[in-house]
């Protein structure tokens, strides 16, 4: 196994390598004066099982292009197998045509990764499950549920009952799987019915389900501006919940989301380190999924089952 890291999340990559009892392959990634990216690997990877770790988060296009060039570098260095490890898969929210003349960019990114030379993809909590079908190569889509469920058991008081809440109708399956997975905390779910008048803004219309006298846990895959999350938290507390927390995999946290969350009804927002978080908001806590990725990579190398991680 040879592990290389891009520039998007080097601390995470180092943790993953440590979990694999391995070191990151020395790699130089630099930009020329005109912005072109150049990658040079300083170790022999011929015939090796190569893992390239790179989240395609902000700046999305730079990080995506960097990953594509890394894949091409590994291919031209005669790597036996190339796995693109993408903890956060950018452009995943463009998974369908939202209007008559709009792209399906998630499919385009899938084609780019395949054409560049990736043999398989390892990612986590894709925004839409059908994105796996955009690839003509194997895709392992990990889930943060196992990590978050352990954290809930250690840090959330559940004696008064717990309800898992989806912030929109599209996340009902995720909330149900979470409730089933964490059945020891109670299997109830609720749904926030929201209206989105324009991109980046949302309004809570109704709360479907009973949260009164319970500890509510919002679960979702992405928190971006935080508007939906904060509005949902306010609606849940207004409905009589004892507390409301959020467990969300990918913390994009754009446009002052930190300050918005600090002022909200949320007791806490827990995110993974799939995207590096450099803020200092007191209500935001990061839980590492590096051990999960490390174990998945070990199993891929040894041709073992990855799905059994979640059973």
List keywords for this structure.
5-stranded parallel sheet, Rossmann fold, alpha/beta, 7-stranded mixed sheet
Task: Give the secondary structure arrangement, pairings included.
Layout (H helix, E strand, L loop, with lengths): L1 E4 L4 H10 L7 E5 L5 E5 L7 E5 L6 H17 L4 E6 L18 H12 L3 E5 L14 E4 L2 H11 L6 E5 L5 H10 L6 E11 L2 E8 L6 E9 L3 H12 L4 E9 L5 H6 L5 E5 L11 E4 L2 H12 L10
Helix pairs in contact: 1-8
Which CATH class of the largest domain?
Alpha Beta
Here the CATH topology of the largest domain equals Rossmann fold
Task: Please tally the helical runs, counting DSSP H or I stretches of 4 or more residues.
Answer: 8
Class computed from helices, strands and strand pairing: alpha/beta
Biggest β-sheet: count, sense, barrel?
7 strands, mixed
The average pLDDT is 92
Poorly predicted runs: none
**Number of E strands:** 14
Number of domains: 2
Give the topology string: H per helix, E per strand: EHEEEHEHEEHEHEEEHEHEEH
Rounded to an integer in angstroms, the radius of gyration calculated over CA atoms is 20 Å
Walk me through what this model shows:
With 311 residues, this protein is an alpha/beta fold. Helices cover 29% and strands 27% of the residues. It is built from 8 helices and 14 strands. It has helices at 10-19, 60-76, 105-116, 145-155, 172-181, 227-238, 257-262, 290-301; strands at residues 2-5, 27-31, 37-41, 49-53, 81-86, 120-124, 139-142, 162-166, 188-198, 201-208, 215-223, 243-251, 268-272, 284-287. The strands form 3 sheets. Strands 10-9-8-11-12-13-14 form a 7-stranded mixed beta sheet, with helices on both faces. Strands 1-4-5-6-7 form a 5-stranded parallel beta sheet, sandwiched between helices. A two-stranded antiparallel ribbon has the order 2-3. It is globular.
């Amino acid at each position: 196994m040879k592990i290389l890291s891009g520039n998007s999340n080097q601390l995470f990559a180092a943790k993953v390598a440590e979990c694999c009892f391995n070191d990151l392959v020395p790699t130089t990634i630099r930009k020329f004066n005109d912005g072109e990216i150049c990658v040079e690997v300083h170790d022999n990877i011929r015939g090796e099982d190569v893992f390239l770790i790179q989240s395609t988060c902000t700046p999305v296009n730079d990080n995506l292009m960097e990953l594509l060039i890394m894949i091409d570098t590994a291919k031209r260095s005669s790597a036996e197998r190339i796995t693109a490890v993408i903890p956060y898969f950018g452009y995943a929210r463009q998974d369908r045509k939202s209007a008559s003349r709009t792209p399906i960019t998630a499919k385009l990114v899938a084609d780019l990764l395949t054409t560049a030379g990736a043999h398989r993809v390892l990612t986590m909590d894709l925004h839409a499950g059908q994105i796996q079908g955009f690839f003509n190569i194997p895709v392992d889509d990990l889930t943060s549920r196992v990590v978050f469920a352990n954290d809930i058991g250690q840090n959330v008081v559940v004696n008064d009952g717990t309800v898992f809440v989806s912030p929109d109708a599209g996340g009902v399956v995720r909330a149900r799987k979470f409730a089933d997975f964490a059945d020891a905390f109670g299997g109830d779910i609720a749904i926030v019915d929201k209206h989105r008048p324009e991109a980046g803004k949302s309004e809570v219309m109704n709360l479907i389900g009973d949260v009164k006298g319970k500890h509510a846990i919002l679960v979702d895959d992405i928190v971006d501006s935080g508007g939906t999350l904060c509005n949902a938290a306010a609606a849940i507390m207004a409905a009589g919940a004892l507390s409301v927390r959020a467990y969300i995999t990918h913390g994009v946290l754009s446009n002052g989301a930190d300050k918005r969350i600090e002022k909200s009804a949320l007791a806490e927002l827990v995110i993974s380190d799939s995207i590096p978080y450099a803020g200092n908001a007191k209500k935001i806590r990061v839980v590492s999924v590096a051990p999960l990725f490390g174990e998945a990579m070990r199993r891929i190398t040894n041709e073992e089952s990855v799905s059994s991680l979640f059973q």
